[in-house]
Write a structure and sequence with these properties.
The chain has 8 helices and 12 strands. It is α/β, with parallel strands linked by helices. It has a single domain, classed as Rossmann fold (3-Layer(aba) Sandwich), CATH 3.40.50. The strands form 3 sheets. The chain has an 8-stranded mixed sheet, sandwiched between helices. It has a two-stranded antiparallel sheet with strand order 7-8.
């Protein structure tokens, strides 16, 4: 197994920072990873742990830093669901160009990355196994009229006045310039559509104490996967949205990664 950090050219002619894990087998399967809102591409090493474990089963993997996240040199203003999906396409094209990828293709998404996973599988039925970690996979804003606690009305008003939204990211206590197109994408692009028609295998992992993406979302995802070949819901008791990363409970992340590895080994 070889892991390397490189940059690849996107469809938008930007540089995407990526981590590629090469299982050193050809042909090989492919695992695509999609991180959460303003997170890093390995999700604090948890994506990397899964990738390294699955490399033993003949899977190469790619983890990408989305616009304005991780070590991306783009401004966060470029972070929209459309741009993230374009970057996923660019990364998959890179892997198919440089590796002999077979038909064992899977995808794992955390939080907003879970939403991106649902959007991606809607257009890519070749993905045969997915992992949804605390996925924000609901329609629009889940009837809240808020985005991460901020009223949508206030955000849209600021965007009209200033051309951007000055947004306080609660996850790392920083201020970023947000594009109102992200809000538009949230409303117009349906993650539930992809779930409803998905016919592959799916594992949903959610913390029972998640206040960022409510636990009910996990049950909604499970219900929507009515056409899935196989589905499994794993509830991590007492874990919040960070699966232990925020409160020094490494056992939560251990369960998250172990259950995901087990499911993918058995079903992809």
């Amino acid at each position: 197994m070889l892991a390397k950090e490189i940059t690849i050219r996107s469809k938008r002619n930007t540089e995407i920072p990526v981590t590629v894990v090469d299982c050193c087998m050809n042909p090989c399967g492919l695992i695509i990873f999609a991180h959460g809102f303003k997170a890093n591409r390995t999700e604090d090493g948890r994506f990397l742990k899964v990738a390294e474990a699955l490399s033993q089963n003949g899977f190469s993997s790619i983890m990408m830093g989305f616009p304005g996240c991780d070590v991306s040199e783009e401004d966060f203003f470029s972070y929209t669901l459309e741009n993230c999906l374009d970057d996923i396409d660019s990364c998959v094209e890179y892997m198919k160009t440089h590796f002999q990828i077979n038909d064992r293709i899977g995808m794992i998404g955390y939080s907003m990355g879970g939403r991106l996973t649902c959007l991606y599988i809607n257009e890519h039925p070749e993905v045969k196994c997915i992992g949804i970690w605390a996925g924000a996979c609901y329609e629009g804003f889940n009837n809240q009229e808020r985005f991460l606690g901020v009223p949508l009305e206030d955000m849209r008003k600021e965007a009209e006045e200033n051309g951007f939204i000055s947004f306080h990211n609660i996850f790392d206590d920083t201020w970023v310039k947000m594009n109102s197109m992200l809000l538009d994408n949230m409303e117009s692009m349906s993650p539930t559509e992809g779930l409803a028609k998905y016919q592959g295998c799916a594992v949903i992992v959610h913390g029972t104490n998640d206040k960022t993406v409510p636990l009910d979302t996990a049950f909604q995802i499970e219900k929507l996967l009515e056409n899935a070949k196989k589905k499994e819901l794993v509830l991590v008791d007492d874990a919040d949205h960070g699966f232990g990363a925020w409160d020094e409970r490494p056992e939560f992340s251990q369960e998250l990664t172990d259950q995901t590895i087990k499911f993918f080994r058995e079903n992809l």
